[in-house]
Amino acid sequence: MPVIKRYPNRKLYDTEAKKYITLDGIAELIRKGEDIQVVDHTTDEDLTAVTLTQIIFEQEKKSSGFLPTSVLTGLVQAGGQTVNTLRRSLTSPLELLNHVDQEIDKRLQSLTERGDLAKDEATRLREKLLSDPARMAEEKLNATASEIEKIVRSRGIPTRDEVQTLITQLDDLAGKIAAITVQEQENHPDQGSA
Predict the structure, then answer these.
(1) Exposure winner among 60, 112, 140, 177, fewest CB in 10 A?
(2) Where are the domains of the chain?
(3) CA distance 73 to 85
């Protein structure tokens, strides 16, 4: 694991490669699958989380960000609790879908054990129910997949991919908020933590 030392002048030194490295260089190491550790040269304090947050912040700055300033300001004012609450509310539908999947498995197994459904029929039905819910809904509602998608969209129901993207963005945002808090504490140590 490469150990990166951060000097008082904020320069970063890769002790493994024996050369100075930039935040972009650290990001590249991480993209390659490297685990890194960043420590303060003087105090040996672990600065890995702060540095990773800085990398995320710099990348967001380059890509113009994904949230308006007013939203970010509100989240900073509300603290990390708001982010955690939002993350829980987004993962809730995914957990519900997992419960539905488990219930389908349980009922199909019960039908198979009672002899009401052949094992191969149960397997086909399970695949159909779990892998292509739009097609099953189409058969039941006599609607096309595009009509179902339109109905789902009109009711504001996100896809699993959209929920996962939001969770990833929330994790990034939580890191940025933590970095801002750390920076504020470093800039105003006499105020203490609130």
Answers:
(1) 140
(2) 1-65, 67-194
(3) 17
CB 6 within 8 A of CB 38: yes
pLDDT tens digits, residue range 124-179? 877 777 654 544 444 454 455 566 666 666 766 766 677 777 778 888 888 888 88
In tens, the pLDDT along 59-94 reads 777 766 655 566 556 656 666 555 555 555 555 555
What 3-state class would DSSP assign to 14? strand
The model's pTM is: 0.39
- Cβ proximity of 12 and 5 under 8 Å: yes
In 3D space, the residue among 93, 122, 92 whose CA is nearest the CA of residue 105 turns out to be: 122
What is the distance between the alpha carbons of residues 126 and 37, in angstroms, rounded to a whole number?
46
Give the three-state DSSP class for 162.
Answer: helix
